[in-house]
Amino acid sequence: MGTAPIPPESLLGGVGPGDYLAAGELTVSLLERYAGLAASDRVLDVGCGLGRIAWPLAGKLAGRGSYAGFDVVRAYVDWCVEGLRLDPARFQFRHADVHTSFYNPEGAVAAEDFVFPWADASFDLAIATSLFTHLLPGAVSHYLGQIARTLRQGGRLFASFYLLDDRVRGPAAAGVTDPPFPFPTEHGLLRDASVPESAVAIETEWLLAACAAAGLGVTGVHPGKWQERDGPYYQDVVIAVRDSGAAP
Question: pTM value?
Answer without folding.
Answer: 0.95
